[in-house]
Design brief:
This protein has a domain of about 140 residues. About 30% of the residues lie in helices and about 25% in strands. The protein is built from 6 helices and 7 strands. It has a 6-stranded antiparallel beta barrel with strand order 1-2-5-4-3-7. The radius of gyration is 19 Å and the shape is globular.
Amino acid sequence: MKTGVRIARIVKSNSHVDYVARVIDALDTGNAPAEGDYGFARFVSIPLTEIDVIGVVYNSELVNPEYGSFGPRLSPRADLAVLSPDYLSEQGILLGIILLGWLDRRTMTYRQAIPSRIIPVNQDVFTMDDDEMCAFHRSESEKVQLHYYSQVITHTKMFGVALLEAIIEQMETRMGPEEKTRLAVLRKALVWQRTIGGLRL
């Protein structure tokens, strides 16, 4: 059973590793997630048979069909919640999630690689806690690892460097001195990449 907060459901994919999930709201559940549960660089887990696919939130999009509609309002918003809740549920938040690896629940081991499994529509998305996030980033020798570095840069495009910096910032406060040193080197490389990239523009 998942211990994290259920925050969203998968609605579509843009590629094998790039999925879109819709944040659940008060019309879906009596315990809607808080805003802080689905922010940028939030690690998430998507349970499938025998494995939990691990991903991270890299983008968000507001969905509002009412925008650009200048027709008369037939009912106030409070009445729509009772008379036509489907109309309100068309508004929402979509999350872009890049897949980074998985947890094999049979052996309780994490792997950083592209998952072979395809995630079906309507699959629930849960938050990961700090301990799970750190375990995902430790190798068998207890060294910090980010094997998904190039994958993030390739698939998240303009968000790639900022996403990796945000991930490193989360990890630096939870890792030991040796791991912090390795992360600091990687952070400097990202700052250089961001600076050079900015100059090219």
